[in-house]
Amino acid sequence: MNSFERFSEPVLFILISLAEGNKHGYAIMEDIEKCYAVKIGPGTLYGAISRMEKLKFIEAIPSKDRRKPYQITSAGRAYLQEKLREIDTVTQLGFKRLGLQ
Amino acid sequence: MKWLIHLYPKKWRERYGDECLYILENKKLSFKEVVDLCINAMDARFLIFVEAMIHLDKKMRDVMLASLLNRFLIIGSALFLGTFGGYWLGTVTPSILELSPKLLLLIGVGLGLFIGYVIGVVRGIMRVVHVTQKKDVLLPTGKLKFDKSRH
């Protein structure tokens, strides 16, 4: 497991949150908590954000505010699509084998 | 809880400090979130250290590797003695509950000194790395010159 995979779940949540629109860190945290009933600590959030910025999946929008908004890049959208397809394949196979599809 | 931000390295604080501080000021942190911050601060420090090693000048890296190799005998002996000495101590010494408070204090002081020494050595290495990226350094083995056009 590389250092990015350790953050794979928060990365997905953050990318999905930003796919809806630009948000700053605190708003991302609240969105994730509201949508998935999952709490992401500020440490994990910024650990994932710094890695995603290095990979150019997201970028900070210049702002005078202390809260810097982030936006998803085209590379981030492509990564998110790929991961969601993978999850979809696994989900469909799982339902099929459970006899629910 | 604002002090938690100081667990992170300076470079990280310069980039994310303000926005992370905003969260710390506006959110009541649970114990789990405090632990999360501590772990990720260590992670950030480790990442910055690894990045510094990767982007180090080849010459500097060679000097450090040679220095490490020269010390291999000392480190190897220390590891050997530590492993077998620890095993021997574990078999012949009484359990920690049977030790006197004075002895426990002595062990604590010894451990503290050792940890301080290790931290000092690591900080020293990082300082040398930092300084050599800005100016030439005069060592007993000769003057170290590095390409500073990148910095």
UniProtKB/TrEMBL annotation, chain A:
<dbReference type="InterPro" id="IPR036390">
    <property type="entry name" value="WH_DNA-bd_sf"/>
</dbReference>
<protein>
    <submittedName>
        <fullName>PadR family transcriptional regulator</fullName>
    </submittedName>
</protein>
<dbReference type="InterPro" id="IPR052509">
    <property type="entry name" value="Metal_resp_DNA-bind_regulator"/>
</dbReference>
<feature type="domain" description="Transcription regulator PadR N-terminal">
    <location>
        <begin position="14"/>
        <end position="82"/>
    </location>
</feature>
<dbReference type="InterPro" id="IPR036388">
    <property type="entry name" value="WH-like_DNA-bd_sf"/>
</dbReference>
<dbReference type="Pfam" id="PF03551">
    <property type="entry name" value="PadR"/>
</dbReference>
<dbReference type="InterPro" id="IPR005149">
    <property type="entry name" value="Tscrpt_reg_PadR_N"/>
</dbReference>
